[in-house]
User: Fold this.
Amino acid sequence: MPQRAWDQRDLKQGERRLCDDRMMTEAHGNPLESYVRAALALQGYTFNDAQIAEIIEQFSRLEAIAQTVMQWPLPFGSDPAPVFRP
Amino acid sequence: MAAALWLGPGTGVSAVIGSATDIVVEIAKGTRSAADVLADCKALILAKDPDLNCFTAKTFERAEREAAAIDGLHALGKPLPPLAGVPYAVKNLFDVEGMVTLAGAKINAGNAPAAADATIVARMRRAGAILVGALNMEELAYGFLTENHHYGTTRNPRDRTRGAGGSSGGSAAAVGAGMLPISLGSDTSGSIRVPASLCGVFGLKPTYGRLSRGGTYPFVNSLDHVGPFANSVSGLALSYDAMQGPDRKDPACAQRAVEPVGAALSLPRGVRIGILGGWFHAWADPAARRAVQLAAAALGATEWTELKSAEVARAAAYIITGAEGGALHRPRLIEQYEDFGPSSRARLAAGSLIPATWVIQAQRVRRQAYREAMDLFDRFDLLIAAAAPAVAPRIGQETLLINGRSIPTKAGLGVLTQPISCIGLPVCTVPVWPGEGESPAERALPVGVQIIGAPWREGLCLAAARTLEQAGIAAIRPPP
Assistant:
């Protein structure tokens, strides 16, 4: 896996994203798959390839739906719905 | 004809149990005993359930004790509680003393039996209701079908080839089949309203925090609601009143005094009712649109309005559900992945990987959608929309085709309910019979209409439902 170069900090944001995406793609085929594999490992899961494949499929559906949420314009500082009640 | 049991032979009507109100009146008058009603209820369950698979457990011994206690009170001339002798059953995520709380999952089958009844089960008991069993559901309440990998599929009482909806499918189908006058379920994203719509029964999802979830198996703490199904609006109201009140066992339960609705089920003059268009119209097929049209006409509603954030509120609910549900089950997904059903495990595991930024953004969206809805309630007292995009799909049907657009059945059935539960509004779902569809079988199926109120206005939702019931627009039909 190529090592991230510190001098990427000097790249413009779009260039850096391209660079990151390229690293991800080279590592695991696509960024979403890379994320799922890394997150599964971080969370302590140990799954076989078939199990990981079905989780990647489900996560890609979540990611598609999350786009609607993430692209929704909100005023800066808008508060989240609270759940905790003391 | 006994109100507690309509006998089919010679009448052309299948045997069904009467309404909660009829049962209460008959027992109070002494024309029937609680034991008589229970015997009829048991006979109906034993006759009908093998074909439908609503029940995962029957609690007949307990029911006989509870019925004997009611008959004992009556014999002594003592006052009877408000649900005296009314049989009911609960989705199997409610704790019932001495029973394992399954929540539709094999992973729970080895758990210790519940030490006590869930809060609202205990309140139903104190109100005199008779618990006859636990009901099938979608595994861990995650989905809008009740095609349970471990405990089987619950069939629709209107058409055995179709699903009952979910996740409280057993609760809706048991009432729709005429086995019970009342059942209890839960609703995270539509799990009361969708099966009520598909099975043709009344359902109430109260305001978030109104009814205690103490002693229930959780799914998504920030979205979980509990509520009743019934074969009449008065049955919903009676049980809702019996279950209200604060409860320390549920941190989200509102510290509000009981606000009974039972005696005030009449719609005040001048109530302003808006018809939800936009997202709610786009995702309603002709049958669902016709159901809304019938309800609107009967309620005198003519003005259309829009909840512009409906789509994003649904998406937010989806993300929050995935994240909270996934986090809840992560430890056992690590240890027992193969013991989860195939339709649940990968979704839950994927949900447990959702980044915090998505969740926080979803919670911010949720707050904004709530504010938009509150602005709508400055103009309207109630809003109406279909509860499901179409009539009940066939069992195993993978996609719904809604106005030329295809959507996966399992997620798509909640497309019209998720935006509302995301912001915790109270909703009464009523069964309407639009008579629309491509085949005679489809034309015989119901679609529910959601009557949506501002927070804590359950009484107004129920009053509108009662108006539709009295007008004959919302009605329970005997199963074929």
Summary: The two ends of chain A are 47 Å apart (CA to CA). The interface with chain B takes residues 35-36, 39-40, 43-47, 51, 54-59, 61-62, 65-66, 68-70, 72, 74, 78-81, 83-85 of chain A (CB under 8 Å). Residues 1-19 of chain A have pLDDT under 50 and may be disordered.
